[in-house]
Design a protein that fits this description.
Oligomer: single chain
Helix content: under 10%
Shape: flat
Strand content: 25-35%
Distance between the termini: 90 Å
Length: 346
């Protein structure tokens, strides 16, 4: 059976056959999500049996809540789970095994409504909105949503994100639950590591700086730091990263950053720190790598040269806030007049 969107929909009597066909169809690709780091929104802090990693551990013989093989979250208005492939991969298709309690009739009468309306994204960050929407369910009902779902998504990315929501003030179709939760027993992401293609991902992409087509090896996009025809050109001076869209930080001596990851080839200019020299000095520090501490009498200081540009702490005055208030005055800017103290020296 096929949904209106061309995605696989299988039920009771064909499920076993489908597993066999799925294994054959995916033989050419690698499950690149297996044992990779995973995240679960709203986990149970006291129950490791529902950990996010359960959905990428390769186990799917027990699809029940307490079988120790599923990622399960609390019921909330949003539900998010993602797997970090650790590097950008060439993805072909994604398969999701929903929690069924090992009993499909119970899945369709007591669980499926929590999964209706789900979305699957592939992104280079944990922000799904910065990525590609691979699938959005606006077709399934609680009676036809597949217990095992597969969608083809020929894109490149590092994070595969499952998301669902039930937002206040939004009217959802009949049969949808009022809250959502994660119930993922396995998420398989089939494809190749970036830079490889073909049967069993055994061929290196012919164009070194390209993400290549999984079947043909043709260039489909540039790896971070490269641009142009067949991705042969490095980013222009002062830019780096994906599609050369990110600007370098404040590198010393106007040195360009590394065009692939943005790190500075030299130290940072005064007033900035970090590998990419994009982090301004925190309050109270200045200079090279923000290693110098501002004068204690300053209300902070200039992050470049340490001058007290923002003023003095109460009780101090002068250009560098080195002078205590004159006798008889106190406070911010030494603008307050002392009262009638018995000891005139205090």
């Amino acid at each position: 059976m096929v949904s209106l969107f061309g995605h696989s929909v299988y039920h009771l009597d064909v499920l076993t056959v489908w597993f066999c066909l799925l294994a054959v169809s995916q033989a050419a690709y690698v499950n690149v999500a297996l044992n990779k780091p995973a995240y679960l929104q709203y986990p149970d802090p006291d129950d490791d049996d529902w950990d996010a990693s359960n959905a990428v551990d390769g186990r799917k013989s027990d699809l029940s809540e307490y079988g120790g093989q599923c990622a399960v979250s609390w019921r909330r208005q949003t539900a998010t789970w993602w797997v970090n492939l650790t590097t950008i991969h060439s993805i072909h298709n994604i398969t999701i095994y929903f929690r069924t309690e090992n009993y499909l009739q119970y899945f369709y009468t007591g669980l499926s409504n929590y999964f209706l309306g789900f979305s699957v994204y592939v992104s280079n960050t944990t922000d799904r909105l910065q990525g590609t929407l691979c699938y959005k369910d606006d077709n399934f009902t609680r009676d036809i949503i597949p217990a095992v779902f597969t969608t083809t998504c020929p894109v490149h990315g590092q994070y595969v994100i499952y998301y669902n929501e039930r937002l206040p003030g939004v009217t959802y179709p009949y049969g949808y639950s009022t809250t959502v939760r994660i119930g993922l027993c396995e998420v398989e992401v089939y494809g190749c590591p970036g830079g490889f293609y073909g049967a069993n991902c055994s061929n290196a992409c012919p164009d070194t700086n390209c993400y290549c087509h999984l079947e043909t090896g043709t260039c489909q996009g540039c790896t971070p730091g490269f641009q142009g025809y067949l991705c042969k050109s490095a980013c222009s001076r002062g830019y780096y990263g994906a599609e050369c869209q990110q600007e370098c930080g404040h590198c010393r001596d106007l040195s360009p950053c590394v065009h692939t990851n943005g790190s500075c080839l030299t130290e940072c200019v005064d007033g900035y720190s970090g590998e990419m020299c994009k982090t301004p000095c925190p309050y109270g520090f200045f200079g090279p790598d923000c290693a110098n501490r501002c004068n204690d009498t300053c209300d902070g200081c200039n992050t470049i040269n340490g001058s007290c540009d923002s003023g003095c702490n109460p009780g101090w005055q002068g250009h560098d806030c080195q002078d205590a208030c004159d006798k008889g005055s106190f406070g911010e800017n030494c603008s307050e007049t002392c009262g009638h103290c018995r000891d005139v020296d205090k």
